Every structure is written in C-alpha cells, then in structure tokens.
Batch of 2 targets.
Target 1
Amino acid sequence: MSNKPWIVDDALWAVVEPLLPKWPPRSPGPRPVDDRRCLQGILFVLYTGITWQQLPLELGFGSGQTCWRRLGRRHEAGVFGKLHRILLAELNATDRIDWTRACVDASHVKAKKRGRSDRPIVRRPGQDRQQTPPDL
C-alpha cells in the first residue's frame, strides 16, 4: 500500500473500473481527465480536507470542479454504494472485519408510524400552553 492513501493502486482500480459508467462517444474539445486520475483527485480532497477549488492542478488530477462534478455523477450512478458492498464482501470473506464492533446510525432509519403515541408532549420555554400540538 502506498504511503499516499489517495493513490489508487492496480488491484483497487481493477475493482473500481468496471463499476464506472461508460463515457458517451467523444465529441470535439479537450479530452476528459482520465477516470483513475480523477478518482485520485477526489480521494486527495476527501483525505486532506481541502476545498475543491484548492486542488492543485500540478498534481494531474484535473481541476477541483471536474473532480467534484465527476464525484456527483458517480454517486448518482451508484458506483460508491456498489464499491462499498464489494469491498465489504471481500474483507468479510478473508475474515478481516471485526463485526463485534459494528455500529448502526439511527439517523438513517425511518420511525414507524411517526414514533410512539404515548410519549409526553414537550413544549419549548414560553410556548403558549393553550396551543394544541399538531396531530401526530
């Protein structure tokens, strides 16, 4: 593994590349930035915490705007969800995940029937007590 975590090695690229949507037929104009280099630019921004506008062009990853747009397109195409499932399955198959330390984030779980009906009504300080709460 590289000491630069944003570098996509050949083994990872072999998993990622088939998941990427195909480019439309080439039109006149500048050549698009190579997908692998652009992914490295995305990872560089996410790893270092810089803004997209601060991505140095001299690194060869393309502009921050290009990487940001490509990140959005890849997300909409479901690339990262698929990649996540593939890598989890691979790590699980080689017994490299400690499932005893798993955590579920409840902020992404919908409440059934809008929560419990027996919970107390909490009013904000100064809220008119005559005001009836909205129907739940």
Target 2
Amino acid sequence: MKTIAGFILFLGLIACSGKSTNGKTLLVDVRPEGIWRQGHARTGVNIPLPELEKHKQELLQYDTVIFVCESGESAQQATSYMNAQKEHETVFKNGISWTRYAN
C-alpha cells in the first residue's frame, strides 16, 4: 500500500511540474495489452507502443501525458515520439517502470 501511495504521489509531482491549462493529466501504459492485463495502475490506460500513432490526437487533448512501461525504454520511445510532433502544447513525460513500483 505504501508503494502505491508513493507511486501516486510521484505521478502527482511529475504532473504538477509542467504547464497546466485545464489540469488534465493521463497515465499511459505502453506495454502490450496481454502484459498490461496482468497488472497495471488503476488510473492508467493501455495504448501499446505500436498503436501510439492511432491515438495521437486523443493524447493531444491532455495537458500532461505520462508514459510508463516494464523497463522505461518503451516509455522513453513514446515520450520522444510524441515530443517530436510539431505545434502542440501537451507535455509528454517519460514516467517510471511499472514493475519497479507494482510490488
């Protein structure tokens, strides 16, 4: 329980460190759906990394999007990809490894 509370606090700190126009923050787990179903943050959504392009416009509706995955590598790829998109105000951040905080 302490770990989950720390995880939520950590996400809140990340979300608050960027700009905010409407306060909308989204946690996106970019792991494959089958792995995501085995355990994930209750407040997050699953968008596997290969499907990120299809959801680009949805993600741009948020002030802050935090990506997480198993090791942090795919989350970093998602962050880099979305930050490379031109003319948007959304803050995309690389979150943390899900498995590191799940236990």
